[in-house]
Amino acid sequence: MAATYRALASVVMLIGFYVVALLQLAAVAALGVWLYGHTNGLVTGKLLLPLVVALGAVAVGLWRAIRTKNEPAPGLVLDEREAPQLWATVRELADAVGTRAPDEIRLVPEVNAAVGEQSRLLGLIGGRRTLYVGLPLLQAMRVDQLRSVLAHELGHYSGKHTRLGGVAYRGRLAIEGTIERIKPRNPIGLVFKGYAKLYLMVDNAASRRQELEADRASVQLAGHEAATSALRSLPALDAAWNFFTDRYVDSGWQAGLAPDDLFGGFGQLLEARREQIGKLQQDVPDREPSRWDTHPPIGIRIEAMAQLPAGAAFADDRPAHVLVTDVLDAGRRLQSLVVDLGNRQVLPWPEFTHAAIAAGMQRQADGIYRAAGRFTGSAEPGLTTVLDLVRAGRLGEFAEQFFGDATRREAAARFAGPMEMLLDNAAVRAQRARWQLSWGGPAQFVGTDGEPLDLAEIAKLAVSAETLDEALVRLAEMGIDPSAATVVQSRATADNAGVIGAIGNMKVDGVQHDLLILDRGLILIGGPGKAGDGEKRLRNLLESTPVATLATRHQFLPYEELVSVNVTREIPLKAELTLHGGRTVALQELYGSELLERHSRDNLLRVFERINED
């Protein structure tokens, strides 16, 4: 019933969307006639052009939505030879809920399962069905828990949610596509945004009812415990996946590396941290329902499940991956289909972990070495440059820039922390140490004998002129040569930098530029083009070219090279940047400048404040 309601509501709301468009077209036409009778044609054209453009966007949005094909999402298609038990389970559950089994099962990387149907004639004629099963669910769940998830998804088929949902899908595309093409300040755009919110409220309400309908099949075919525990596990698995990518993958990915078995690594993490993840599953996220939710909150769904009758379900605590013949091979094949490695170097997990942490450590060391080079005038700074400052009694003077709230003596003592990192880096460069992968905890820093290596005590000796020689002797005994630890990147780059704003058409040293504001520096793009196109030009530029590439093609000014910033006016911005060595750069925002985002200028001013505080 909910499916029929949703489809009907979507059709009515979608028709209403274009009725509103026609009414506005009539209003624009009437306004045009009135203006033409009271002004000249040029004035009429200027006033009506933005409105006509907005209405043209409506037609484009509808046309693209109608032409859009609901193609299956990327994933690994599993045939019966590769997953005989999974196929048998799906067919059994499909019979139980009274629906046709899917035509294909696709393995996907998400912590989720879903169903889709390529229906025709707005859902009046059924089409090819696809069941999507997230690989993390196979890796983390029991068989009975996965049965409950599959029963829920097949319940969407039996309720015809997928067939008639195509209307809602195209309605969303039409409305979203229209709004994207209308500028924010256009009055017609404001009307459509209001209508879009109403459309989503109606459609999301029907979607939430469909989820509760499908939960009935989950409880009936898998039982209360399996159904509720499977629901509880989803937020925990999401958290585990985010932890995995953040702690184990991202740093190496940013360094141009990739693991050879991404999903296999996640499976090992799940096994090693099973107790921690189990504790997370006990906490159901507690939040109030929202009219913008497509799914009811998990707590509400669990409460509703408790009121439903359960069938004669049997517990099956086998790991769900037994339903697939070779889950490790499936994971590697899935990676080859859905992960774009680019030109990254692919390494086994132990080598990937070591190389990723070592690369991040080298970036940190390079920042300190570049600062030492600016401080001493050395063209090739390295660890010996810093140690020479220690011997000369100038470490505190140098270290003040890293510890703004400390005296010189305090800064020298506190530099033992950065010094330990520099010594670790030197040990890695000398091949006397490496980072050892651990799925149950942080990677360990170990020596050539595989035993943990701690250079903290030597670092404390190395920050004092009185004990520096003792530190050097101990390093030599370990085969660590400080002179081999030098800067790798002599100048900061924009690799993996984030964009926090942009300003089109502003003057840099009196010459017109576009300005990209990164979290690491500024990209100054000369000869930007016609004023008035700044926002569009900046968006096209960022969508078409990686930030790191833009920094190599244009002038890149890292924040670490700035000594101070003198802001003489905030709106429109006028500032003078002073670099190490005395060079200055003048920035002047014009009244015709355009902000990429509303807070672009504010973000830049905050960066300037931090530079002056350091």
Automatic annotation (TrEMBL):
One Gene Ontology term from the biological process aspect of the record: proteolysis
GO molecular function: metal ion binding; metalloendopeptidase activity
Listed InterPro entries: HtpX_protease, Peptidase_M48
Taxonomic superkingdom: Bacteria
Keywords annotated in UniProt: Cell membrane, Hydrolase, Membrane, Metal-binding, Metalloprotease, Protease, Transmembrane, Transmembrane helix, Zinc
Main location: membrane
Subcellular compartments: Cell membrane
Domain Peptidase M48: 82-306
Required co-factors: Zn(2+)
PANTHER family in the cross-refs: PROTEASE HTPX
An example Gene Ontology CC term for this record: plasma membrane
Membrane-related topology note: Multi-pass membrane protein
One protein family per Pfam: Peptidase_M48
Transmembrane stretches, start-end: 7-35, 47-66
Protein name: M48 family metalloprotease
